[in-house]
Amino acid sequence: MSANISLPEEFIKLMEASVGKEASDLFVGQYNDAAGGVTSVRSNPKKGGDTLLLENDELFGGPLRRVAWCSNGHYLAQRPLFTLDPLFHAGAYYVQEASSMFSEVAMKAIMEDAAWDEDKLRVLDLCAAPGGKSTHILSLLGENSLLVSNEVIKSRSVVLADNIAKWGSHNVVVSNNDPRDFKSLSEYFNIIFVDAPCSGEGMFRKEPETVNEWSMANVELCAARQRRILQDIWPSLAPGGYLVYSTCTFNHFENDGNLEFLINEMGAEPVDVAGFAGNSEYGNILKTSHGGFQFVPGMVEGEGQFFAIVKKSTLCGEKSRFRIPGMKPSGNLLKKFPYLPLQEYDFELKGDMVKAYPKGLANEIRFLETKLKIVSSGVAAAIQKGRDFIPHADLALSEAFSEMISQGKLPEGINAVEVSRDDALKFLAKEPLVLPGAPSGYILLIYKGVGLGFVKNLGNRTNNLLPMARRIRMSIAK
Ligand code: SAM
């Protein structure tokens, strides 16, 4: 595929000044031939992981190849029609550009530098929609750590919450706040990811039409906005905490310029990732003058990406001084809730919605609910209707369920049926489904060992409990 959109002279000059002439020439030289780039996905370790993908590689046109810097990342032989793969809807993998799978490298470097054990961390992904970094971070965090996945644009925060629900993690709060709103969470987070809105030069090969939107004025505007975001969120980082700043662009105004600002104006200390830059198994990743890492297409197998890790000095104390006020435990209203192990979750009724919070994080999540504009938190487990509980679609997708499915330990009273691809697609299109021989009542549908959703079996037909907004709208006929 050829892009056939020429790169502006001013862009090329700025790229040369930012990444050097050699890297710039390489990018410009192959930009037109490599338009579209390679498609990659990251498997969900809680839902079959790499094994499930590798066993089903025919879905992706043949053998998968590992992304060198991400243990669950894979390049696909061909881009399939993801909409027609039930595993995609079940959250068994996330379609993510390879270079932006750097979160694992950043998290490992932080854990090594800080010598933290991986549990009990508070992590913020500030610019999180549609959820690539957040779902990745959730796969890297321990059970007792909590992620706040935030997106300032409301419509995008809804998409984010949906992608997080499909991924299935329960140690996460999705919020819809401006970076300024985090002032009330001063020194609260151990790690903050700022995957900033940027001029997107690194995605020119994948989205050639965006070249026409490039201008020097927009680069300057993006750089100033990123600086404001960094300034607003810096006070929320605990002393001794780490901030990962990233963009998918090349120019030094948005990348090293803002890294320099963090170092010189905010007192941040750059953190290295040993052995990551230079010629290596990863390709050739450039180290920028202030200690950031630059991915240049042609030098790595991926699109353009910049990231840097900085640390906040511990001069104000070794640890976050933030204290979570005690909260009242939830009432025993839901003592008979049949769908999740009561000893592991705290349940709460919000309107008619039953929310489940992992016990060790329930207090913290409730506290955050008082501070942020919440889009979703914990697991939406069921809807109460009179004395009945209707299982929520998100429960089927939750990691609590995927674990119980893989161990064959579903709670008593939950009946499950493994469905074919055709039936899975019918369910996802909200078409009528018949499950001969299945018991009546609520049935969990499982596809290739992964929870897909619930139906209520009425014998000769089923009521489909998939939310209307999640249904496949295209024709599912092969
Ligand atoms: N981290 C995401 C992922 O991996 O899927 C991609 C994030 S995208 C590069 C940047 C995000 O920043 C967008 O979702 C955008 O809506 C959001 N954004 C735009 N303006 C912002 C602002 N002023 N403050 C914070 N976030 C902003």
Would you mind describing this structure in some detail?
- The structure is a single chain.
- The protein is α+β, with helices and mostly antiparallel strands and 478 residues long.
- It folds into four domains: 9-95, Sun protein, domain 3 (Alpha-Beta Plaits, 2-Layer Sandwich); 101-312, Vaccinia Virus protein VP39 (Rossmann fold, 3-Layer(aba) Sandwich), CATH 3.40.50.150; 324-411, no CATH class; 413-478, Nuclear Transport Factor 2, Chain: A (Roll).
- It is built from 13 helices and 23 strands.
- The chain has helices spanning 9-19, 21-31, 49-55, 86-89, 103-114, 132-140, 154-167, 216-233, 256-265, 362-369, 393-397, 399-406, 421-428; strands at 40-43, 65-66, 73-75, 93-95, 122-125, 146-150, 172-175, 189-195, 237-247, 269-271, 278-280, 283-287, 293-295, 305-311, 345-350, 353-358, 374-377, 379-385, 388-391, 415-418, 441-447, 450-457, 462-464.
- A hairpin with a 5-residue loop joins strand 12 (283-287) and strand 13.
- Helix 1 (9-19) crosses helix 2 and helix 8 (216-233) runs parallel beside helix 9.
- Residues 100, 127-133, 151-153, 156, 179, 195, 197, 225, 229 line the site of S-adenosylmethionine.
- S-adenosylmethionine (SAM) binds next to helix 6 and helix 8.
